[in-house]
Amino acid sequence: MITGKKIFLSAVEKKDLEQLLEWRNNADNRRFYREYRELNMQQQLMWYETRCINDDSWNYFTVRLKQEPEKMIGYCGLIYVDRINKSAESAFEIGDLKYRNAEFINDTLRTKIEYAFDNLNLNRVWAEIFDNKVYGDKNITLDYYYQQLGFQCEGRKRDVAIKDGRYVSSTTYGCLKEDWIQKCQ
Amino acid sequence: MSIIGEKTYLTCIKKSSLEILRTWRNSEDIKQYTREYREISEEMQSQWFEKQIHNKSQLNFEIYSNDNNCLIGQCSLANINWTYRSAEFGIYIAVSNLRGYGSDALKALIKHGFYELNLHRIYGEVYSNNLRALSAFYKIGFVKECVLRKAKFMNGDYCDIICVSMLEDEWREKYGK
Hints:
Helix content of chain B: 25-40%
Largest sheet of chain A: 8 strands, mixed
Order of helices and strands of chain A: EEHHHEEEHEHEEH
Structural class of chain B: alpha+beta
Distance between the termini of chain A: 21 Å
Structural class of chain A: alpha+beta
Number of strands of chain A: 8
Oligomer: heterodimer
Strand order of the largest sheet of chain B: 1-2-3-4-5-6-8-7
Radius of gyration of chain A: 16 Å
Radius of gyration of chain B: 16 Å
Shape of chain A: globular
Strand content of chain B: 35-45%
C-alpha cells in the first residue's frame, strides 16, 4: 500500500478489471490517452496477465480512498520503466467523476511520483498530454496538475493522434529528481 | 521489393545478411546510438529475424550502395501506428567515409513512408551528443519538437534525447511529388 493524504495506491486485482475496463472504454476518457480500441474482457485479462503480473517495467495501481478502502476512484501507473536510463512514463485516470478534482488529482499524482523517485529509484518521470483537454471540475488542463509538481514542458509533438475526428498534438512534460526535490521537498 | 535513392537502394532483410548486421549492431560505434544495451547473440538475432517477418508494425531494410551493390547499413520504420498513421525511423551506416549515403537512404525510406504507406507523421529520437546525425536530419527537413532532458544514460553520464519529426505536407512541400 502506497499512502497519500486521502488516497492510497494498491496493486490491481482481478476483481478490479471490470471497472477498469469500463473506464478504459469510456469515449470521453479516451480523448486523454493514446488508446483508440474498444477493448473486451479477454483483452483486459491478457493485459492483466502480461503487464500487471509478468512485466517488471509496468507498475499499475488502483487508487482508493483511505476512509473507504473498498472504493476505487481511479487507476494510475509508472509504465515503460527503463532501468538503465532510470525513467518512466506517468499515466493516470480518475474514473469516478465525483473525485476528478484538484485535491484528488494532486494527491494521486504526488503519491505516485514520490514513489517513483523514493522507491523505484528513478531519475526521470515524464508524461505526454494531448492538447487543451480540460480535466476535472474547473477549467484546468492536465498540464497544470503536472506543472504543480515540478514537471517542465520539454516540447510538443505534432499530429500524434486522432481524437474527435481530427489530429491533435501533444506536450511532453518531464520531471527530473532534482526538479522534484526543488518543488516538492 | 526495392526502394531506390540516388546513392543507395533499400531491400528487405535477408537471412544471409544477419551475421554481418549483428556484428555491426554490436560494434561500439553503432551500438552506443541504439536502445539495445545487451550484446546480441546469434540466437537473439535469429529470433528477431523470425519475429519481424510477422510484425505488422515495423519494416526493416538493408541499405546498399548504388555504385558497387555493397551492403552498407540498415534502416527501419518501427512502431507503426496504422490508425494515427505515424512511424518511427531508425538508421545506421556502418561503412565509413560515405558522405551523404545515410541521408540518401533516409530520404528514400521517408518517401516510401509517405508515398507508399500513406503515413502522416514520421518521427525519430536522437541522442543530443550525436551531432552529425542531428545536423543531417535538420538538413533533410526534420523539425525539432522536444528535448527530453537527461533521458539517456551513456558513457557514464546522462544526455538529452532530441525528438524530431516530419509531417506529410512538409515532405510534399520540400520534395514535391
